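name: query_chain
kind: protein
chains: 1
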Amino acid sequence: MQTNFEEVLSKVTDFLKSEAKTETVIGKEFSLGEFTCVPVIRVGLGFGYGGGEGEDDKKSHGGGSGAGAGIGIEPLGFLVTRGVEISFVPSRSSKGLAAAFEKMPDVLEKFLAGKEKEAAN
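structure:
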């Protein structure tokens, strides 16, 4: 029973390595004029496995096992670059990490401007 589970888990892991990537789900990096766009996704997965055996009053013996797996893949948006500028363009309204990615170019710009100002003084 254990060997079969390990074999299934190995096959699922191999599948995820080869198939559950951005290029497979929504495409590869592409250019749009001066812009380079890189798709960003979120992947979630779960596994479950159980088994058991037993006897009844008549000394009948039984056993069984089961396994299940699930995967969820969600496009989040695109990292967009133009020259040295980078920004995140969400595929839907911004919340959490997506909102932070959107603000990152402005934060970096202000930080670097402050550093340049300090260096000039």
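note: DSSP finds three helices and four strands in the chain.
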